[in-house]
Amino acid sequence: QERMKGFGKDSEFRAKRVHVIGAGVMGGDIAAWCALRGLTVTLQDQTLERIAPALKRAQTLFEKRLREPLKVRAAFDRLIPDPQGDGVAHADVVIEAIFENVEAKHALFRSLEPRLKQGAVVATNTSSLRLEDLRTVLANPGRLVGIHFFNPVAMMPLVEVVEAEGADPAAAQAACAFVKQIDKLPLPVKSAPGFLVNAVLAPYMLAAMRAVDDGVAPETVDEAMLAFGMPMGPIELVDTVGLDIAMAAGKQLAGGADAPRCLIACVEKNQLGKKSGQGFYDWS
Ligand code: NAD
């Protein structure tokens, strides 16, 4: 981690206010993390009801990390539900974390851009969409940058900062500075399928599932990789990521190869991993 602290060019950029759009798995936890780290955060989703679960998770995170009730209270006060998106106009960093859908993201960016503060960082948390496709609706396309957090946000130090072809280098530099400001490790990457981490991880997870297709027990695959020194076995990792997400990512990153049979079988039974209580393993 020491070595990685050097990643990302230095920039004077410092954020005070962050606006996160999409209060789902990622957006909700990104907003909570930023509030934990002292920033004022507005969190937007379609309704207050959709923001509520994220606030509940944030409360748990604050209590665990801050302990003192006054500090917990202060962090909670910094996290402001904002269904109308009023926070956009004041934000130094705007992070989009809505559904993984180009049209939805286009519609959002169109309405967002005229309301942005000058010099604000505009970021997407997309895992799989090309920034070059997302930015086409922007009058100033060079300012869109990827700030790609990993799940679970509070546990994962690495954040990929994605610079698309021909983008303004100042945008990625400011994004790196922001990532450092919230005590994460920025990894500057080019805009390519899977960026860096998922491009490396996907073949590893697919090979593990192919071993299961060939008759090796999931436990055996995981025990082997744990004994090899990995912190979590690859099959448990698939259960953690979600089998539907792994299937989609596999389609994109496996170069057209068929999905492993064991993965298809689970997804067809709606066994999606930890989130559904059953995947390769029983989590209920
Ligand atoms: P999610 O489905 O949990 O949450 C998406 C949220 O966006 C929902 O609450 C939805 O109501 C809201 N939303 C949709 N359209 C909206 C709009 N126009 N305005 C406001 N809110 C809107 O999704 P997620 O898993 O958090 O993924 C969000 C983004 O993060 C995606 O781009 C995904 O690729 C990326 N990502 C996901 C993971 C992961 O492990 N889930 C990891 C890294 C990146």
Task: Write up this protein.
- With 284 residues, this protein is α/β, with parallel strands linked by helices.
- The protein has helices spanning 25-36, 48-66, 69-78, 102-112, 131-134, 169-181, 197-213, 218-228, 234-241, 243-253, 261-268, and strands at 17-21, 40-44, 79-81, 93-96, 121-124, 144-148, 158-163, 185-190.
- An eight-stranded mixed beta sheet has the order 3-2-1-4-5-6-7-8.
- Strand 5, helix 5 and strand 6 (144-148) form a beta-alpha-beta unit.
- The chain is globular, with a radius of gyration of 19 Å.
- Bound molecules: nicotinamide-adenine-dinucleotide.
- The site of nicotinamide-adenine-dinucleotide has 24 residues, from helix 1 and helix 4.
Poorly predicted parts: none
Ligands bound, unique: nicotinamide-adenine-dinucleotide
Major sheet, described briefly? Answer: 8 strands, mixed
From the 3D coordinates, which CATH architecture of the largest domain would you assign? Answer: 3-Layer(aba) Sandwich
User: Taking all residues together, what is the mean pLDDT?
Assistant: 94
Oligomer: single chain
The global form is globular
Beta content comes to: 5-15%
CATH class of the largest domain: Alpha Beta
Strands, total number:
8
What would you call the structural class? Answer: alpha/beta
Family: In the central section; belongs to the 3-hydroxyacyl-CoA dehydrogenase family.
Organism: Dechloromonas hankyongensis
Domain 3-hydroxyacyl-CoA dehydrogenase NAD binding: 18-190
Protein name: 3-hydroxyacyl-CoA dehydrogenase NAD-binding domain-containing protein
